[in-house]
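Bumping with the actual sequence this time:
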Amino acid sequence: MTVSLRLGPLVRHAGPTTATVWVETDAPCLVRVRAAGREAASARTFTVHGHHYAVCEVVGLPPGARLPYEVLLDDAPAWPEPDSPFPPSVLRTLDPDAPTRLLYGSCHTPTGDSPEGLVRHGPDMLRATARRLAREPVDGNLLLLLIGDQVYADEVQESMRAVLRRSRAADPADGAPGDEVVRYDEYAELYRQAWSDPQVRWLLSTVPSLMVFDDHDVRDDWNTSAAWRRAMDALPWWRSRITSGLGAYWVYQHLGNLSPDARAADPVWARVRDHGSDAAEVVDDLAWRAHSEPSSYRWSHRLDVGPVRVLVADTRCGRALDEGSGRSILGPDGHDWLDEQLTGGPEHVVVASTVPVLLPPAVHHLEAWNEAVCAGAWGRWARGPAERVRQALDLEHWGAFQYSFRRLGAGVRALAGGERGRAPATLLFLSGDVHFSYLARTGGTDGTRSEGAEQDATRPAPSGGRRTRVAQLVSSPLCNQLPIHLRRAARLSASGPFAVLGRVLARLAGVPRPWLRWRLEGPPYFGNTIGEVVFEGASAEAAWYHCPGAGPDALPRVHRRARV
């Protein structure tokens, strides 16, 4: 029997001398990855819920390499595909001395740029980026950061609904909803449909990628509050959903985030790799423990690219949800991890948070007010209505976790003030989630309360050392644009009068002033975008690409540039 690729190859973690390649196959086999002029790296597949995967670690590569490669399954060529219209897929290693280009985005619904998909969701920016990179050689380091909603388990396309109808007809026992993904097999098909488009597949086969989940990878509003979680835990199918969602995430996304050394140190990986048969029980146990005891597993991860430090934070699974002072968007262990990484030395520090740290000020203040009222600031009578408002309006970003917002602020002030070593030139929050794109510039980071709009974010640190610019960059969605009526509401949320109203509500609920002030630079943009930040020396330049041309072959253009 000939073994075939079911999904992949995906080029994942890259280092100066290593490259990681992930594949899914349709049968157990030996997978080999052979880079031009190099000895092949090999790995046997492992099995989870009847699906077969391999992670190949190619080592001993030169820094800054761009090496075409092929994938062989039991010594039979499986990639590249014959007659592909794209250039050869390459393994890219990092050059610590070269400029770094970081692409980022979130919220991707696979439509193939069909006529119906273009009307409903807009152009697919992953496909458009593939077309662009196939024509434009890229010098230096290139990374793709996918920051949430790589799949939509609760808002599926018709092709996935057909799969679910067959699944429910065969096994309706757990009462699972007919239009949501619940079981591992269904997640496997969801990922296949998301990443098997020829253009997306080529992009992921040639650009190293880092990933992290957001709510739709599991379910809309995942871990919004303790009340939301209690309601979900009461559903008979929820255990299957959270176990399958987190287990599939570990296999399809998280394993590839890890360096070879980090993966080797992961006790779950060792058990799965060496299991010898189907490791479903091991992965299911990991997923359920991560849900029940968030401190049992760390999803956050870090990559250093020369002078650029990229910190990818788990802002979903690790949340602590009890109302009051213990409520946290990262959880205690997540905060400790992030604090440990916010140290001096790098030229640039990037914190990838799926949900924006700096929202439009009106929304931030509204979330802070809502959290305080849910905790009892206006008495017990207001807690129930406030919780209903929280869930109805998705008030669950950093503004809704004021302890976390203030603790992050303390770390940022210490880093920018030179208290943790040489301060970076920039500290950038990269986010998605909200389905519009913007740049937010901040006021002082040295503990002063500026109004931010007038003052420079680069005022000297107390030590008299270098100055750090702090900014929030949001690029969302990749392919899932907001309906018109929701765009109007989002525009209002970014307006000045609503910011004043939000600030008043927050003060009436006893919320302390934020640790800094910020404002959006220009109006939010509601089309599909992919963000880009280019780091070279001490400079960082941001750009947002969109695709104004119609049709599946249109090339993206720069919508906006900004020097950070």
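The tokens above came from a reply further down the thread. The chain has 16 helices and 22 strands.
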